[in-house]
């Protein structure tokens, strides 16, 4: 019976200790509450939104496209001389006859941001499902090869495509230099020095 009383006494002391702990933690929370409210009143709504936006797990849509195109896309295979062609290209829907007869100098009707597909808002066209009926499209980008590369005499020039869907004919300075068939597969074309201008 004495053991039982001691055990009971120990339980009573433990219960008192736990009640005291609960009261202490609630006092601590009551003390922290004004501090938290003060922080929320100091932070302006725009600062709070910017902070929450940075921590958001969803990707933000930024139509200003703040990403840098001057970084090499595959650092493990980096070359000393390369030029990214991502960015704004000329674009239009075209018939088969217009693809072959169009002048290289005539401007195309629209602009599109590559590497985004024309259905995506970041492409600048945001055609969505309206692009489903398009059969032939024409893209064009003008660029200069840096003189320091020594092309066409000192180096070879290769044009790399990450992916094109589905059939492609590629022209360089008005000359057909290659074609490719197959969706979403990378491919490359070496540009012949005889077409340099």
From TrEMBL:
<protein>
    <recommendedName>
        <fullName>Beta-galactosidase</fullName>
    </recommendedName>
</protein>
<dbReference type="InterPro" id="IPR008979">
    <property type="entry name" value="Galactose-bd-like_sf"/>
</dbReference>
<dbReference type="InterPro" id="IPR051913">
    <property type="entry name" value="GH2_Domain-Containing"/>
</dbReference>
<keyword id="KW-1133">Transmembrane helix</keyword>
<dbReference type="GO" id="GO:0005975">
    <property type="term" value="P:carbohydrate metabolic process"/>
</dbReference>
<dbReference type="GO" id="GO:0004553">
    <property type="term" value="F:hydrolase activity, hydrolyzing O-glycosyl compounds"/>
</dbReference>
<keyword id="KW-0812">Transmembrane</keyword>
<keyword id="KW-0472">Membrane</keyword>
<feature type="transmembrane region" description="Helical">
    <location>
        <begin position="28"/>
        <end position="52"/>
    </location>
</feature>
């Amino acid at each position: 019976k004495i053991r039982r009383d001691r055990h009971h006494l120990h339980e009573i002391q433990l219960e008192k200790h736990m009640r005291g702990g609960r009261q202490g933690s609630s006092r601590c929370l009551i003390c922290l509450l004004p501090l938290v409210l003060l922080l929320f009143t100091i932070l302006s709504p725009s600062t709070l939104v910017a902070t929450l936006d940075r921590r958001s797990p969803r990707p933000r849509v930024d139509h200003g496209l703040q990403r840098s195109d001057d970084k090499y896309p595959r650092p493990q295979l980096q070359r000393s001389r390369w030029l990214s062609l991502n960015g704004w290209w000329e674009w239009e829907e075209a018939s088969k006859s217009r693809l072959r007869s169009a002048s290289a100098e005539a401007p195309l009707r629209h602009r599109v941001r590559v590497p985004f597909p024309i259905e995506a808002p970041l492409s600048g066209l945001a055609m969505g499902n309206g692009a489903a009926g398009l059969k032939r499209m024409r893209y064009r980008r003008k660029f200069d090869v840096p003189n320091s590369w020594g092309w066409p005499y000192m180096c070879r020039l290769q044009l790399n495509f990450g992916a094109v869907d589905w059939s492609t004919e590629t022209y360089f300075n008005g000359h057909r230099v290659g074609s490719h068939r197959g969706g979403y597969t990378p491919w490359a074309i070496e540009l012949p020095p005889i077409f340099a201008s």
